[in-house]
């Protein structure tokens, strides 16, 4: 059994932890070439090739505030990975970018450049790639999710809040209907 974090991006972070939380695999996956859909197809193939039966997986949710040229690719690879997992009956949980940041730092709006230090302080893990760092936190999230009762007292208050929200998400409130003017 492993806990796997996947951070879908142009360079997709992949981290697998063993049952004790030790890193078994930490790498950036890129696919082949720079022309889509070949790059997306080969990148999804790389991700799926690294997954083993019995893995518990967390995938980072979409960043709806992102901008720039790579945003289309990020949505494409994000959906392609989810479709590949779904079509193979491989369950996964989704962790929003804010939940990932809060689980690592206590704040859901932490800038990317402020993430490495808390990750090293909390778990002793470092990597040059922010994609691998995110994947590492995702793997820690799914580990806590799957072992929540047993890890309850080892998690910080903010980590418990994140996992509780993933376990029991709050329903989104429906917008109130506007009254028509007479």
TrEMBL record:
InterPro entries: RNaseH-like_sf, RNaseH_sf
Naturally occurring in which organism (per UniProt): Alkalihalophilus lindianensis
SUPFAM superfamilies: Ribonuclease H-like
Descriptive protein name: Holliday junction resolvase RuvC
């Amino acid at each position: 059994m492993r806990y796997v974090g996947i951070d879908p991006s142009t360079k997709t972070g992949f981290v697998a932890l063993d049952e004790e939380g030790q890193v078994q695999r930490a790498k950036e996956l890129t696919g082949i070439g720079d022309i889509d859909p070949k790059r997306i197809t080969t990148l999804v193939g790389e991700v799926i090739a690294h997954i083993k039966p019995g893995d518990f997986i967390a995938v980072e949710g979409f960043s709806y505030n992102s901008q720039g040229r790579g945003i289309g690719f990020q949505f494409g690879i994000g959906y392609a990975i989810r479709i590949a997992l779904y079509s193979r009956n491989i369950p996964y949980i989704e962790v929003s970018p804010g939940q990932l940041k809060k689980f690592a730092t206590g704040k859901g709006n932490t800038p990317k450049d402020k993430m490495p230090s808390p990750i090293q302080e909390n778990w002793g893990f470092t990597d040059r790639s922010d994609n691998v760092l995110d994947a590492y936190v995702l793997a820690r999230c799914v580990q806590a999710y799957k072992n929540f009762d047993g890890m309850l007292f080892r998690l910080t208050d903010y980590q418990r809040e994140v996992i509780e929200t993933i376990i029991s998400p709050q329903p989104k409130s429906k917008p109130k209907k506007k009254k028509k003017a007479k």
